[in-house]
Amino acid sequence: MSRIGPKDTKPELVVRRGLHAAGIRFRLHRGDLPGRPDLVLPKYRAVIFVHGCFWHRHDGCANFRLPKTNTEFWHHKIDRNVERDREAIVELRKLGWRVLIVWECETRKSPPTNLIDKIMGWIAGTTEEEEIPRPLV
Q1: Coil, strand, or helix at residue 16?
Q2: What does DSSP assign to residue 6?
């Protein structure tokens, strides 16, 4: 798991390629913004995070299962990731940015044009904060 990098993951590339093909231009991993969003759309004052279902605890998703070994370590690590995500979103909202979270499991569905259509709808809309797919709660 140490080989999994924070940038240029397969789910992130699916979103980037789809948005670029749709004519949306963006910046990547801006370090001056809280949480270093995966995609920053300055024209729309919007950011997109592409979260891995395991690393960011996508509740109710088949891709999230806590490892059976060293569970205390993993529980603490993933809890801290989720807490850091919440903090970054709160800070971004205070700075006037709209926030979209795209979960990894959604990028695996075919065709990816459905996902890109959902993202394009969010970009064109006025919703301040959203997740794709929406939470199961």
Answers
A1: helix
A2: S
Q: What is the CB neighbour count within 10 angstroms for residue 96?
A: 8
- CATH class name, domain 10-132: alpha beta
The tens digit of pLDDT for each residue in 48-92 reads: 999 999 999 998 888 888 889 999 999 999 999 999 999 999 999
pLDDT at 15 over 90: yes
Q: Are 35 and 92 in contact (CB under 8 A)?
A: yes
Whose CA is closest to 8, among 39, 41, 40? 39
Measured in whole angstroms, the distance separating CA 35 from the mean position of its chain's CA atoms is 11
In this predicted structure, what is the pLDDT of residue 129?
92
| Average confidence (pLDDT) over 90-106 | 96
Consecutive H or E run containing 88: helix 71-94
Q: How far apart are CA 113 and CA 117, in angstroms?
A: 6
Bridge partners (DSSP) listed for residue 129 = 99
Asked whether the whole model's pTM tops 0.85, one would answer yes
Distance CA(53)–CA(41), nearest Å, equals 23
Joined together, the tokens standing for residue 32 give: 């001056």
